Amino acid sequence: MIRGLCFFLIGVAAIQVAGWVGLPKALYVTKAQPFEYRHKTHAEKSGSAECDGCHTLGADGVFAGLPKTESCAACHTEPQGKSAAEATLVSSYVKTEKETPWLVYARQPANVRFSHAIHTKRAKLACERCHGKHGESDTLRPYQENRISGYSRDIWGRSISRWKRVANEGMKMDDCEGCHKQQGFDTGCLSCHR
Amino acid sequence: MKPTRRDVLALGGGAVASVFFTPIPWKLLDDASIWTQNWSWIPQPVKGPVEWKESACALCPASCGLRVKMAGGYAVGLSGKDGALCALGYGAHQMNWHPQRLTVVRHNGQPSTWAAAEAAFQKACAEGPVAIVDGRPGRGASQVYRQFAEKTPGALYAVIRTPEEEALRPVAAIAGVPVERLGYDLENTKLVLSLSAPLLEGWGGPQRVQRLWPAMQIIQAEAELSRTGTCAARRVQIKPGSEAMLAMALAHALLDEKLATGPRPAMSLAEAAALAGVELDEVKGLARTLAAQRPSVVISARPEPAVAALNVLLGAVGAEGGIVARNGAPAPAKSMDELPGTLRAALLDSTVPWDRRPAGAQEVFRFAAWRGGDEQGWMLPAPGFLEEATDNPATGARAEALLKPPAGVKTTVAFLGGELPAAQPVESAIVPLTCKLAAWPSAAPNGQDGRTAAWTAAWTPAVLAPLATKLHQESKLMPAGGGRRQA
């Protein structure tokens, strides 16, 4: 009886370790960004610490997303230093006029529609509310891709349990709904889904 | 210690019992559901820089201006350039992905090839006569069709006339101008007397009348209540098919009241009013309203010479707010309905509606972007929405193709070996039109004179209504007890 109970508890323990420790390690693969990028340095050199200095909203409210290579080319027609990242930017993207294939931490599935204009202009939410202190970082975080869904780990959140250690952790529908409920804004399915 | 079978079962039992307290099933279920959205065969919008381009909608003659949201070379959203779009217009870019999209030549419902279609068409041209039918004349492509018809022996160019154009044919006959040059100047009209014309139901181009109404007053004379009738400022009940009778009665009333000058119809006022089923006082009141509310115009659903003559008496032909002539209109062309019944073949442009084809054509070559209809003859895959240069015949403006058509698609212009001419702005302006009524027209367009039409109008309700009632009463669907369900 005791022996059976021991094996039962061993089974419980093993699966708990596999689920809470092994699964995140097995599920996510770390991928490298095309080259190193420093938000902090760019904010200091450009003299603008505001996100919308580079991540602009169009006159019609459409979010431009990541800056195009032509924006980078304004300063980086020639390497601004001897770093490998600088050489990659200039030789692979600026000179060839190709867009940088950044791995986007906040990329959502195609059936999700999100308006930055409504959230930042009308609701007056700070960018950090969802993206954290990304803009103050001196280095890009490792991009961890979910092997099954293909999206960033940031969508689920860093914690596999989804217990939020910080307010901006996670970008799943539950997170949107939680914030909307907190703010008292009810939305229907088609407000965000197409 | 050697593990036994019982130990393995206990270990497994512990694992299974506690797996639901780990993220394994829940996280994997969540990821698997997202994974199913990303299967390679599920179409996904292309990711790429978003840009807005301008074009024109080609779904209907209104040619609404479009703002097209493009991502990675694909259209992902549409909005109106100068206002809203219709419900179909907002989703028109999705039509190119319809499962019934035609990308392969089909002959009598079976897949075929462009080479076979071209060979069959050349053979038909050699044997002749062949008709090229244009559903929307005045475009750049229309010029190519005309040129092909001119240089090919036995080939004819024909157009699809709208009911509005057909209704103007009697006016064109009286005024001696091609019907293509005539139009209604409704933007300056104060009052319209509609004789069964569905003015608020898509008549005269989408949204045109809706935009002008209710500032433009509508009086609807009709036999059966229509949506236009319910919205009109006033509705006059007439007998079925008696629109010409009412026009003649109104002409008499205008002349009697000295509100107009000109020839009188042969039929008397009392007789015409009786056949139309309208009281004499109401006819006279209507005539006075038409004269007082000038500029006014009378519009009929069908070509009625009596209505055309009434408009001339009213002074509506050639006057502002009435029926006007313009230059820059498409060159006169034969209507598809006027084509001979001995055609060897007919080539139908993709703008020709599915239910229209020349009567008697032995072989039909129909261009279409989507499958449909009975699929008899040749079905030739045409470019879809925004996949070919879009013409606006009213302005001559042309929007270039924004989207790349799928392989296997060809334009009618390319099939005929032509090349789309450069866009040329149309200088369209209203020109003077003088029109005088020498004598009251006696023949109706269908060959009946007024009395025959009136007789038909009279016997139709007199005979058909009792007949329908009798059929209904004898129907086995009728429950016992004279139509009332027995308790």
Descriptive notes:
With 194 residues, chain A is mostly helical. Chain A has nine helices and two strands. Mean pLDDT of chain B is 85; it is low at 445-450 and 476-487. Chain B starts with a helix and ends in a 13-residue tail after the last helix. Chain B has four domains: 5-37, no CATH class; 50-97, N-terminal domain of TfIIb; 106-161 and 332-415; 186-321, Dimethylsulfoxide Reductase, domain 2 (3-Layer(aba) Sandwich). Chain B has helices at residues 5-19, 24-37, 87-90, 114-127, 140-151, 163-167, 169-175, 208-212, 227-231, 243-256, 269-276, 280-292, 305-314, 412-415, 450-474; strands at 50-56, 65-71, 74-80, 106-107, 110-111, 130-134, 155-159, 182-184, 191-195, 217-222, 234-237, 296-300, 323-326, 334-335, 345-348, 363-368, 378-381, 390-391, 398-399, 430-431. Chain B has an eight-stranded mixed sheet, covered by helices on one side. In chain B, strands 11-10-9-12 form a four-stranded parallel sheet. Chain B has a three-stranded antiparallel sheet with strand order 1-2-3, with no helix packed on it. In chain B, helix 10 crosses helix 12 and helix 10 packs parallel to helix 13 (305-314). Chain B has 487 residues and is of the alpha/beta class. Chain B is globular. The chains are: A mainly alpha (194), B alpha/beta (487). Chain A binds chain B through residues 3-5, 7-16, 18-20, 23, 27, 60, 62, 64, 68, 99, 109-111, 146, 148-151, 156, 160-161, and chain B through 3, 6-8, 10-19, 21-24, 27-28, 30-32, 34-35, 37-38, 44-45, 49-50, 52.
